[in-house]
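hi support,

uploading two proteins for the ticket. first:
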Amino acid sequence: MKLFLDSADVGEIRALARWGVLDGVTTNPTFIRRLGVADTRAALREIVATVAGEIEGGETHVEALGADADAIVAAAHANRELGDNVVSKVPIDAAGLEATSRLAREGLRVNVHLVFTVNQLVLAARAGAAYVCPLLGRMRDAGIDADAVLGEMLGVLDAPPGLGCELMASSIRDAASARGAIVGGARVLTLPGRVLREMIESPLTARALERFVADARQCETQAPTAERRAREAS
């Protein structure tokens, strides 16, 4: 099982990396724009450096966009200059497939994303993608049974001899959807920080912890009395 944080917030990356559960970070231009960052390249350098410093062996997945395959390949090469453990995110289309194939032959790892169908997954895997990234939440927005599509995709990937890539479940918007993806067989997920924090929570845990804390405090107040009685009896 691999868990990635879907974020461009360096503070959030540092905080959640301390949990010891992350394998890396996925980001995109929209996240960076929402933070009001003026220098995107500098922001990406900081993100990559933070991941490298806070997550042992951690990957940073960075967008590689372009009007054609040459431009996408050039963007991926520029991403590689950010750090050794950078994986380029390439959208699924004809130019993206060509770029993925070329980058894979160079030994560069690619995450093909914006995937919504089994057909797209197969093409991306055959092109040499290291990860194929379906957007489950956006499927549901379009009225598609995302759980069924996820099951079909995993069935194709797992069928011998296999396609040699990992499925990264993305666009996961709440803990229930995360649970559904995990139970459905996804072994790589990228999750917003809000969802990761939500995954910790359970009313039963909260109630049990509250009781344990109360009992511990009561034990502390009773301890001197017990010690005094022991001395008096000796």
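and the second one:
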Amino acid sequence: MKDVLCYSIDAESKAGRVIAKDHVAQGLPAMVFLEPDGSVRDKIVGFLPAEDFIAEVQRIKKNEFTLGGLRKQVAANPMDLAIRWNFAQKLEQLGDKKAYDREIEFIHKNDPDGTSIGSRSLRFAALRKTAVDDMDFQDVYDFLEKEKDADLLLNGWFFLFQVESYLADKGEEGTRQSHRKLQISAARALWSHVPEKRTLRVANAISAALLNASDKLEAGDVAFLIEVSGAAARRAPKDANSLAMYGASLFLAERTQEAIAQLKRCVELAPKNARWRDQLARYQREK
């Protein structure tokens, strides 16, 4: 950030409220990136893990998938509905509903058959809402079975993984076992569609969910868990949380010495964290 002029503003102050009203509609904390002419390039809202935050800042500095960059792409290619859909997503993300609605109307008008990525994404959003309302997700599974777009597949399987994880833990007692199997199947499908830049976030989400059900995992599931948590540990070798989940996964497979090595590293990274020390002591007692 050395090449960026940074200003901190109290959104609760008299002057800050004026700025926040225009630029911070999605909550705090927020980081707003402006172009030299004062227009918004992009925003980062909420707290992010360090690696994700750095990746977002780098993306915005490169002007990749930013509000300003997408607006220029739309101006240069007004009939490219994929670009218009990306622009609509960014508008929705930044809280500009009126502009989002205009883009969606344009997509519908120029793609009456619904074959563009924008139309298919809208179809997925509608299916997802109906599925949640009705608690019936078969139409979403059917949609993903036919879909080819990488982003839609990633988002779709992440949605189903989250749903099945919840139902496996909180669903009706007689259905939890079947949802557990669907959770693991969705996790495998999700993992097969994860791009490199999303590895850490998705791997940690899968690892946390499966470790939460560690007593219900079969040997093949544990091997998959080790693959996923190991990828996160390699991606973020200084992230104690990722290393601890990798260690817990190894411990499930009775690879105790390797698990101990991971927890020792966690303690080195966060020596004041009693959780890591307790976990390490437990592994050492049981080796």
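thanks. also noticed: The first helix runs from residue 14 to 23.
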